[in-house]
Structure formats: structure tokens, C-alpha cells
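Per your request, structure below.
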């Protein structure tokens, strides 16, 4: 199964799937993430409050938009951060800072689809991305 390219396409596919297949879709999203060099997996890029290790590293595209590299040491958690990135990837800092990422992810109903251990770090992932965008705002 190839990972969808947009949050909307992902939701369309996710809605058609049974719970076990939803796990596989999340894992596929994680596998499709751009590789994050190990040198960027530092304490500074670690997302606090996640049950698994999650790293997020921002880069700035020439036109000022933000592009994030991310990784996790757990397949489902890596899929979750990939889902979060589908909402914000390659957007302007102002757009990310003003976006309600939690609302964009709400249709996936992750809190009811996954264990609380797996979803507890999502607000922290979103907060780190938002804080990064705010730092880069013009």
C-alpha cells in the first residue's frame, strides 16, 4: 500500500479501512517519511512527552516555507508524526502558526483508534511544530 500524499487523501483512504488496516496505513506513512540523518536525532530535536522517541527537525526552503524531517523509534508513532507533517509540511510559518493542527487531525479520531500511550505525545508534536513556526514568522 503506497502512502497518500495529502491529509485529505489519507483521510479518504483511512475512512475506508478496518482498524488493523488503519494501523498498516499509519506504518506506511511512517515508512514513506524522508529519511532523517542520525546526526539530527539529538536532545534538541526530541519531542518531550511521547511514549516513544520522536525527533522533529525544521529546515527552511528558499522561499521561506518550512520543511520538517522527522523520525521515531516506534512504527506507529512514526506514522503519527508523518500524519501530523501531512498537515503542515512545506507551508509558510504564518500558515502553520495559525493552523489548528489538532482540528485537522480530528477526523482521524486517533484517541479512539489507538491506545492512549500512542496518542499522548500528539499535542507535544503539534506544540513543537507550532513553536518552530512562530520562531520563523516574519
Amino acid at each position: 500500500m503506497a502512502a497518500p500524499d495529502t491529509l485529505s487523501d489519507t483521510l479518504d483512504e483511512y475512512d475506508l479501512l478496518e482498524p488493523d488496516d488503519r494501523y498498516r496505513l499509519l506504518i506506511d506513512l511512517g515508512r514513506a517519511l524522508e529519511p532523517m540523518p542520525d546526526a539530527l536525532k539529538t536532545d534538541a530535536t526530541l519531542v518531550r512527552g511521547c511514549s516513544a522517541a520522536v525527533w522533529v527537525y525544521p529546515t527552511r526552503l528558499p522561499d521561506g516555507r518550512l520543511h520538517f524531517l522527522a523520525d521515531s523509534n516506534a512504527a506507529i508513532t512514526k506514522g503519527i508524526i508523518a500524519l501530523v507533517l501531512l498537515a503542515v509540511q512545506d507551508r509558510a510559518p504564518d500558515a502553520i502558526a495559525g493552523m489548528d493542527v489538532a482540528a485537522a487531525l480530528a477526523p482521524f479520531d486517533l484517541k479512539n483508534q489507538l491506545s492512549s500511550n500512542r496518542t499522548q505525545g500528539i499535542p507535544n508534536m503539534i506544540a513543537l511544530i507550532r513553536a518552530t513556526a512562530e520562531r520563523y514568522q516574519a
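The radius of gyration is 14 Å.

Regards,
D.
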